[in-house]
Amino acid sequence: MLRIWGRISSINVRKVVWCAQELGLDFQRVDAGAAFGIVHTPEYRALNPNAMVPAIEDVDDDGQPLVLWESNVIVRYLCARHAKGTLYPAALAERFDAERWMDWQQTTLNPAGRDAFVQLIRTPAERRQPALIEASRTATDALLDLLEQQLTHRAFLAGDDFTMADIPVGCEMHRWWSLPLARPHRPHLDRWYNALRSRAGAAGVLDLTLS
Question: Does the record bear Amino-acid biosynthesis in its keywords (predicted)?
Fold first, then answer.
């Protein structure tokens, strides 16, 4: 059985859990990281030397142990193995379009919104820095305008069908829209996100309270 290491409060763990649920996989999730500890033990570092979550333990097609870390890589692996031609697009152009949006989430969208999340959710009110929150909001709003434009002519990020691309960006949007910040109306982005929230695989992920 697939084992997922990591606390569900981690956005990166939520990506993997959503993906596994979307694929209908049997899996066990083990709380690790932050208050749960574990990640600095020798046993866990043997799985992920970065001492971070998530990590997975799986068995490959030959029955050999397979260990992976890095959330978007894990999502790619699970989709390539269990959903080739659907969540993992068969057409090269569509697949790399999906890959591009996954990388964009990790390298561009997440860093833009991180300060607002940390300040508003994980920092006591008396220690918050409004300038950091505002800079984060401004940077993220510009990126959401880009997403709105992308979704004007397609149902999902990589085309007309839900793919692996929608999972990381969807998790990022769940986190951003859960923050107590003004949200300009973006009809195409709203439509897309509501479609994600309605998916059975997103249960317990896109309805979580941030912590």
Answer: no
